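This part of the workshop introduces the protein records we will be handling. A record pairs a protein's sequence with a compact description of its fold. Comparing a sequence with its C-alpha cells is the quickest way to learn the format. The record below serves as our worked example for the rest of this section:
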Amino acid sequence: MALGRLKFQEFDWDGGNAAKCLGHDVSRREIEDALSGPVLLIGDPDHSGSEIRFRAIGRTSTGRHLFTVVTFRQREGRVLVRPISARYMHGKEIARYEQTVAPPEQ
C-alpha cells in the first residue's frame, strides 16, 4: 500500500451520499479535505457491485483520521469521486494507518 493523491476533477454529491456521511457526524467539508490530500486507496471487492468501490484512508488538514468508501465515475470526460460513506477512524485503525504510512525506523 502506498500513500498518494486521488486523480479526479470534482466531487459527486447528492442527497443520498451527503446524508449517509452526515449520519456518522462527518461533514462534507472534512471528507473533501481528506480526499484532496494523500490517502491510502484500497480496493473493496467484497462491497463492489455495479460499481467498483474503494476504501480511502487519510487525514483532514486538522489531523482527523477518516475512513471513506468511494467510487469513481466519469461524466462528460471528467473523473468524479463519489463518497459513499465516511466515518472517523478508531484508535487501532489510526495506529495501523500511521505505521503503514510512516513505519518506525529499524
Notes: Residues 44 and 64 are 22 Å apart (CA to CA). Strands lie at 3-4, 10-11, 39-43, 53-59, 65-75, 78-88. The chain has one domain: 8-101.
